[in-house]
Each structure stands twice: as structure tokens, then as C-alpha cells.
Amino acid sequence: MAQARNIRSDLELAACLVIIIVVIHIGTPLVAKHFGVDWAWLFYIMRGIGGAFVFGLFLRVSPYVAAAALWGLIEEGMTSVCGAITWAYPVQPKAVEGLCDAQLGFPLFHWLGLLMASLLALSIAVRDYRRRNV
Description:
This protein has one domain. Helix content is 83%, strand content 0%. It contains five helices and no strands. Helix 1 runs antiparallel to helix 2, helix 1 packs antiparallel against helix 5 and helix 3 (63-88) runs antiparallel to helix 5 (108-132). The radius of gyration is 17 Å and the shape is elongated. The two termini are 17 Å apart. The model has no long low-confidence stretch (mean pLDDT 79).
């Protein structure tokens, strides 16, 4: 019973990390616009470095938490890279578009997020199916 409770709390922590990733992803363009396009690149770089560090702290908790944390770490690293690219090659993002989307020309993070959330949900469903049928 303690094992099931531990897995449930790990899944809850993983779900919280996924929600945090989504909120950060939606909020970053809004906060960056507050600084103005000229300084948004610096905000992206600093947020990416800080976020990667925080998500890195969760990599050894459990496989489910590590999957969510790894997703967050990768997105944060990519955010820093987008900030650096924007410093070198400035872009003017649209109203609901982030610097990364503007640099790439399509919403990579939306597709990456959908893929990662789907894989996490699938792995949880497979685990539950195996537990019931073993």
C-alpha cells in the first residue's frame, strides 16, 4: 500500500510539473513583452537558465517525475537558445507568439508539449493496465 501511495504522489508531482511548464510557456511571451522586444531576448535567456536548473532538481525523484522534469529542462534550454538567437537575429513576434515561435515560423513548443504530455499519459495508462492484468 505504501508503494501505491508513493507512486500516486509521484504522479501528482509530475502532473504539477506539467502544469507549471504550461503556465510558464503561456506566460513567458506576456512577461517578455512587458520588457519590450529589445530586452525580451535577455529575459528568455535568464528564464531558460533558471528554469533548467529548477527542473534539473527533480530528475532523480522517480521515472514519472523525471519524465516531466526532463521535458521542462529541454524546453527551458531551448528557450535560452531562442533568446540567444533573437539577440543575434531580432524578430518581431505577433501578439500571442513567443520569440521561439517567431524564429522558427511555427509553434514548436505547442507540438512538443502535446507530444510529451501524450507520452506521459500513455506511459501511465500502460503501467495501470499492466498492474491490473498481472
